[in-house]
Every structure is written in structure tokens, then in C-alpha cells.
Design a protein that fits this description.
It is built from seven helices and eleven strands. The protein is α/β, with parallel strands linked by helices. A nine-stranded mixed sheet has the order 1-2-3-6-7-8-11-10-9, with helices on both faces. A two-stranded antiparallel sheet has the order 4-5. Helix 5 links the parallel strand 7 and strand 8.
């Protein structure tokens, strides 16, 4: 029986170190991250990340620092457990609880670049009555769009992640989900996309509050795009992605 406790949170339990499920999920009931605040967060093994993500091995904040150590342990199967156990943990959260899925990792794929719509639907159903949210870098193919739209309609907020302001407009034009975008280091003031959409800088990034007391990213019908200034060891590489196209 594998049982771990990490940073004040409750970890998932596995009946055996060897699992048929190729993905590993870790549940932390109370995060100690100052940006999220004391809320429930999850971590999914690195093989959940889509191959097209521009941040992969190119400045992703989760690939460095303390979170990287935890993520590597989850990815190796040393921490965490199955998707079914993850759903059981989510169902234990109090009603209306705000929680974040995937502080590291992404939605579970059925094949490279394709979101597993069935698993995402089950996750959204487990979230019913609660306020879960996440972000995804999966490409906006017709199948992925349908899966993301359905999850948002069921009350589980999936934000589309953009790497440039132009891409943020492209995501927003789909009309299926709220949008977030990375910003240059030190960005503190609101700005606009090429199409004129407002971009609000994440209040937690500015040190004004934390996710638990903000909750903007969970608002599925918001008009504004949320912006996250590049940070961490790979901030300069993330910033280079932002400037790769005129905006």
C-alpha cells in the first residue's frame, strides 16, 4: 500500500506500485503555495502534457524549483495513484469549494494531442457542486474543442492557455472557454490583445491576493483574458515565446 503525505495535503493511495493506468494523479488537500493559498490542488504525471506545448522543456515553471521535485515523483509513480482514486478525493471536497486541477501536468490524453473526452467528462461530473478549474495547452482540434466545451458546460472550468496575444484572440474567437496568456516578466498593468480584448494581470502574480480569495480563473463566462507574467528559472524563454509574433 503506497501512502504519502506532502506539504500538509492528503495524497492518494495505490493498492500496488505497478498500475495499468499509465498516468499518475496526486491530490493535495491543502496547498502551501502562497499563490494558490490553502486550497486543494492536483498534479498529473508529465506524460499528460501535449507534445505541441511551447513551454515544454522551454521555460515551464513546473519544471524547476520545489514543484519540479514533486512533479518528478508523481511522474515516476512514487507519489499519487489512479484516476478513479482522484475522483473519489474530489467528491470529498465540500460543496462550492474552489480547487485547482493540475498545478503541473495537463488533461489526460487518449492519444498524443487528443484529450480523453470520457475521462474529462467524469472529472467534470465529480466536480459537480464544487468550483474546480484548470488550464490546458492541448491544440484546439474539433475533438478537443468538443471535450473542453462540454466540461465547461458541466461546471468544470477549463481555460485555454495561449503563449501570445494573437493566439489568445484565436482561442477567444472559438467561444468555447475562457482564455489565459503568458506575459513578459514584470508586467503589472492591464493591456489589450490585437483584437482589443482586455487582458488582466493575475492578482496573485502581483502579490495582491491568492487564488483561493480571487477565483477569477474559475469564472467560465468572464470577458477578460487572464495574463500571467513569466516567472521562475525559465522566464526568459517564456518571454521569448510571447514576442515571437507581432501583437
Amino acid at each position: 500500500m503506497l501512502t504519502t503525505t506532502s506539504r500538509g495535503g492528503s495524497a492518494l493511495r495505490a493498492a500496488s506500485p505497478a498500475r495499468a493506468d499509465p498516468f499518475t494523479y496526486h491530490f493535495t488537500r491543502l496547498s502551501r503555495n502562497v499563490k494558490t493559498g490553502p486550497m486543494a490542488v492536483t498534479t498529473t504525471s508529465v506524460n499528460s502534457c501535449p507534445p505541441n506545448c511551447g513551454l515544454k522543456r522551454n521555460g515551464c515553471y513546473a519544471e524547476s524549483g520545489p514543484l519540479a521535485l514533486h512533479w518528478r515523483a508523481v511522474s515516476a509513480g512514487a507519489r499519487g495513484s489512479t484516476f478513479d482514486e482522484l475522483l473519489r478525493e474530489i467528491r470529498t471536497l465540500r460543496r462550492h469549494a474552489l480547487w485547482r486541477h493540475n498545478q503541473a501536468g495537463d488533461l489526460t490524453p487518449s492519444s498524443p494531442g487528443v484529450i480523453d473526452a470520457g475521462l474529462l467528462n467524469r472529472l467534470a461530473m465529480a466536480n459537480r457542486g464544487r468550483r474546480g478549474f484548470t488550464y490546458t495547452h492541448y491544440p484546439s482540434t474539433p475533438k478537443n474543442q468538443t471535450a473542453i466545451l462540454n466540461a465547461n458546460r458541466l461546471g468544470f472550468t477549463v481555460n485555454l492557455s495561449a503563449e501570445t496575444l494573437g493566439q489568445a484572440d484565436t482561442h477567444a474567437d472559438l467561444g468555447i472557454a475562457p482564455v489565459v496568456v503568458v506575459l513578459p516578466q514584470g508586467t503589472a498593468k492591464p493591456l489589450r490583445t490585437p483584437a482589443g480584448r482586455p487582458v488582466i494581470v493575475c492578482p496573485a502574480s502581483l502579490g495582491n491576493t491568492d487564488c483561493l480569495n480571487c477565483g477569477i480563473c474559475q469564472q467560465r463566462d468572464r470577458a477578460a483574458i487572464m495574463g500571467f507574467p513569466a516567472h521562475g528559472a525559465g522566464a526568459k524563454r517564456v518571454q521569448a515565446l510571447f514576442f515571437k509574433e507581432p501583437s
